[in-house]
Amino acid sequence: DTAVSQTPKYLVTQMGNDKSIKCEQNLGHDTMYWYKQDSKKFLKIMFSYNNKELIINETVPNRFSPKSPDKAHLNLHINSLELGDSAVYFCASSQTGSKGYEQYFGPGTRLTVT
Amino acid sequence: GNSVTQMEGPVTLSEEAFLTINCTYTATGYPSLFWYVQYPGEGLQLLLKATKADDKGSNKGFEATYRKETTSFHLEKGSVQVSDSAVYFCALSESNNDYKLSFGAGTTVTVRA
After folding, report:
1. B16–chain A nearest CA distance, Å
2. Is residue B49 within 8 angstroms of chain A, CB to CB?
3. Cβ-defined contact of A106 to B43 (cutoff 8 Å)
4. B69: burial class by Cβ within 10 Å (0-12, 13-18, 19+)?
5. Collapsing DSSP states into helix, strand and coil, what is residue A83?
6. Å from A42 to nearest chain B CA?
7. pLDDT tens-digit profile of A6-56?
8. Would the pLDDT of A76 be above 90?
9. For residues A21 and A75, is the Cβ–Cβ distance under 8 A?
10. What is the DSSP string of B16-40?
């Protein structure tokens, strides 16, 4: 059983389009995250939700809108895609109060904007 | 703010060589420290962690000790294998920062047979 899953794994689209990436976790965790990994492998937090509430919102263009319909899901919608949005996007989850708050990552979604 | 600095790569080693990847951090409080590994084409996996000073995390032959006095969490393995080829990330999380992970830049390690 996959703990944190993301769909799609690959996404190729044109500039100006709107797309969504979905994330689901079956670990029973209460906190979920989105990270962006650029072409140099650098990882940066974008958003975090705890019990469906937004708790971290880094400096991300408002074209990116996360949505958490329930604790097990955190989706990422991106409007008006730009070339610079090309990256690998990782979803992660953790449980409040767990020792170290370690995060479990999904396999990533490679987004290519042409 | 919180930040993590790790040794730049890439690092290329022969099998059975000793591996060290340096990691130092800046934090305002008492962070938890992690090493994550990313194998080619895959997501990140937690390799090991330490949640307080002098703790040693270990897994798969890798070790790292939380050194508060030097604000370091260096990763070591005594004898690497080809299967250890991956990108290694040092990271920290802290309660005063909503426990978000702050990552180092990653170190690419290639082990040759």
Report:
1. 26
2. yes
3. yes
4. exposed
5. helix
6. 5
7. 999 999 999 999 999 999 999 999 999 999 999 988 999 999 888 888 888
8. yes
9. yes
10. T--EEE-EEEE-SS--EEEEEEE-T
